[in-house]
Amino acid sequence: MQKEEIYQKVSNTLVEALNVDETEVKPNSTLQGDLGAESIDFLDIVFRLEREFGIKIPRGELFPESIFQGDPEMVLNGRVTARGIEELRSKMPFADLTEFVANPDISHMSDLFTVDLIARYVEGKLAASKA
Amino acid sequence: MRWIWIDRFTEFRRGEFARAVKQLSLAEEVFTAHFPGYPVMPATLLLEGLAQTGGILVGEANDFREKVVLAKIAKAKFQGEALPGDEITFETTVLYIRPEGAAVRGRVLANGAELGEAEVTFAHLDQARSQQMFGEQNFVFGGFLKDMLKTLIK
After folding, report:
1. How much is the mean pLDDT over chain A?
2. Which residue of B has its CA nearest to A66?
3. From B124, which residue of chain A is nearest by alpha-carbon distance?
4. Which of A27, B19, B80, B102 could form a disulfide with A116, with the two C-beta atoms 3.0–4.6 Å apart?
5. For A1-63+113-131, which CATH superfamily applies?
6. Residue limits of CATH 1.10.1200.10 in chain A
7. Which among A19, A44, A59 has CB closest to B121?
8. pLDDT at A130
9. Which domain holds residue B133?
10. Strands (DSSP E) along B7-67, which ranges?
11. Which of the four pLDDT bands, split at 50, 70 and 90, describes residue B137?
C-alpha cells in the first residue's frame, strides 16, 4: 500500500471515530488538542485501524498507557529527562520527537499524537508484516 | 423503581448478539412529565435500553468479571417516536471486546419496524485501575442486572 493511500485511510478512520469533518484532519493535527479525542476514543481508533488495515495492535503499542511510570530518572520537575527521551524513542519509534526534544515538557506529550504519527505507525506495521 | 429499561431477553449468543424486548406502559413514571397530554418515550431511555442489552452481552462474555460501564454513544439516529403500548426491541451486535473495553452496534425497533440505531462503546473500569477507587465488588453486575439473562425463554 502506498503512503498516500495509508494516510487517506487513516484520515477516514479518524473522521469516523471522532466524528470530525474531513477538512479538519491535517497531517499535523493533534488527536486531543485539534480533533477533540478522549481516552475512550483511542479504543475506537485502535479497533478501526485493525479492521481497516488488517493489522493487530497490541494494547499500549500505539497509545502507550504509562511510559515513564512516575520514574524520577525519566521525568523531573515536569520535564522529561534524557533517559526519558530514550525510553520514548524505544517505545514509540514511529513518533517525531524533534519538537518535543526542544521543549520536553510532560504536559505537551499529548501533542506528539498527530495524524501523521498514526500514518507512520501503520506504515511500519504493514512493512513489518511483509517481512 | 428499578433502573431497568429492558423486560426480557429473547435471543442471546455469547460474545456475538443479544436481543431484548421492552413493553411500554402508560403506567410508567416517565410518561407523566414527558409529556403531559402527549406521552412519548424519551430517546435517551431507548439508548439506555440499548446500553443495558449491550452491556449485559459484553459483560457476560467475560463472565461478569469486568465492571462494564457505558462510555460513549456515537451516531445515534432516530426516525420516529415510541409510544405507550409499543413493543420495543433492542438488538445489539458485538463490534469488539478487548481488555480495556467493548463496543456494539445497536438497533431499536418499535413493533418490529426500525426506529433507530446507535453505536455504543463501553469501558472496563478495572482495566483503568479503578479497583483502587471502587473496590473488589462488581457494583455493575452485583444486583439484578446479571439475573436478566434468566429471563431468556428458550
Report:
1. 90
2. B128
3. A40
4. A27
5. ACP-like (1.10.1200.10)
6. 1-63+113-131
7. A44
8. 78
9. 8-140
10. 8-13, 17-23
11. confident
Sequence letter at residue B152: L
State the smallest CA–CA distance between residue B97 and chain A in angstroms: 10
B27 in reach of chain A (CB within 8 A): no
Q: Is B103–A19 a contact, with Cβ atoms under 8 angstroms apart?
A: no
Q: Does B75 touch chain A (CB under 8 A)?
A: yes
pTM reported for the whole predicted model: 0.86
Contact B98 A40 (CB under 8 A): no
At B125 the pLDDT is: 86
- Phi then psi for residue A4, to 5 deg, are -65, -40
Which residue out of B34, B105, B107, B146 is catalytically annotated? B34
Whether B106 has a pLDDT exceeding 90, the answer reads: yes
B124 counts as catalytic: no
Q: What is the CATH number of the domain that holds B24?
A: 3.10.129.10
pLDDT in tens, B52-97: 999 999 999 999 999 999 999 989 999 999 999 999 999 999 999 9
How many C-alpha atoms does B24 have within 13 Å on its Cβ side?
Answer: 23
Q: Are B116 and B77 in contact (CB under 8 A)?
A: yes
Which chain B residues are Cβ-neighbours of A40 within 8 angstroms?
71-72, 101, 121, 123
Residue B39, pLDDT above cutoff 90: yes
* Cell numbers found for residue A17: 471515530
Q: How confident is the model at residue A7 (pLDDT cuts 50, 70, 90)?
A: very high
Tally of domains within chain B: 1
> What is the ipTM for the molecules in this complex?
0.78
- Burial (0-12, 13-18, 19+ Cβ within 10 Å), B70: middle
